[in-house]
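agent> Task received from the user: take the single chain below, predict its 3D structure, and emit structure tokens. No templates, no multimer pairing.
agent> Plan: (1) validate residues, (2) run structure prediction, (3) serialize to tokens, (4) report one or two observations.
agent> Step 1 OK, no nonstandard residues flagged.
tool_call: predict_structure(input=
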Amino acid sequence: MKVNIDMGVAARGAMAEMDLEELLATRLLVQGNSGSGKSHLLRRLLEQSAPWVQQCIIDPEGDFVTLAEKFGHQVVDAARTEAELTRIAGRVRQHRVSVVLNLEGLDVEQQMRAAAAFLGGMFDAERDHWYPVLVVVDEAQLFAPAAAGEVADEARKLSLAAMTNLMCRGRKRGLAGVIATQRLAKLAKNVAAEASNFLMGRTFLDIDMARAADLLGMDRRQAEMFRDLARGNFVALGPALSRRPLPITIGSVETSARSGSPKLMPLPEAPQDAGDLIFTPAPDEARLVVRKPPPTPIPTADLLAQLSRPKPAPAPPAEPVFAVIDEAERDAGIDAVLREILDDPDAAFRTDAVLYQDFLVRSRIRRVPGEPLSLSGFRRRLAVARAGVDEHSGGEVWAKALSLSETLPDDLQGVFLMVARAATLNAPAPSDATLARAYGSHSPRRARRLLAYFEERGLLVVRTDFHQRRVLAFPDLGCETAPGHPEAPDEPQRDAAE
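)
tool_result: status=success, residues=498
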């Protein structure tokens, strides 16, 4: 179904229309300096398309929550755990509800983690729920920065990965990214490069004007026009907008943001007792802290003498400062939490980042003592737990298998250990469906590619017996699996169904 939405007025008074169905397939990038009208443009787009498509707005400033009263959007307060946000996002896709993720009040790192969890939940939704969704991300440079900033590296990687999935792989899952940024130079290139539609607003820096002109296929001498654009005026290009650069003026909107541009207003008349109003504390103010006079300066000779004295050794504490942690109790608690996670049939198809957040929450609930596992340590323990054997048991053969698994990427260690465990027990070779589930996929073809990769690395040898059953031999371990049919159903799923 072809739906054209009215974005405003184009050249010579013609209507500026946007093909909504084409937009869902080709994505949109909006650039403009602060005050150029980006938020107004996004609001116009959201209001015009609200009756036709489900919407999800990532709102770092809380400006778009006003859409709720007029158009029925649900406001999701981001002050929740990341696991909870991921589950909410899955239900949003299932029930096709338009939402505004309100990130107001969170610091930058918390905003990045919350947005990553929510976008990850929408991206990982089940195939039956891949309905079209317009995902609008305001101030996208916060969530997909071109360079590392002051936030933790892990938070930046999570957020950047979520934005990359949205723009690069979201189309097949029905997710159409609309991202707005103040400067293209601040936005990660692999995120910006996936947009095929552009709306360029007022820009002053030479480098940003040149990049905008390049994206629109304009001569660099024409880039000066971006300095002269008025507020709410943009240059459009793309299959959903126009095949040639087209100046447009964004139309009016029905709702308004909670915050707006500052307006000049006359100052009140200066009171005669202005000094008393400023310097006299109000009755409800906290008691003022009296500043102490600065200490008397120490003579240089005395200071040098103090520095030259040997520092006395600290007395040993009578008892440990921190409580002694029982490592056996800690390992038992971690194993119990991992078993709880793996008992969930959906855990196999969740990313490690989502499972790690669930692990941290469950560890706090169970009061697992000591510092929580790092993400890399969690991935290792999870891979061993999926194989069904403790890392510190299993004999010399299993210790050799653990050593071989460390040469593989983190996401492949669990699959390798599962196959190696079957070989050490002389159990039937796992089927393609079982291997795919262990990798977090529904594709048997991917499972066969994993075995081919292991064979290329010289870790195992795949052979077929006379009954077309598969046998996996491990030369370094000196053992092999019993014959197993590659097309057999996934055992845990079959048991759960029964």
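agent> Step 4: summary for the user.
Residues 330-497 form one domain.
agent> Done.
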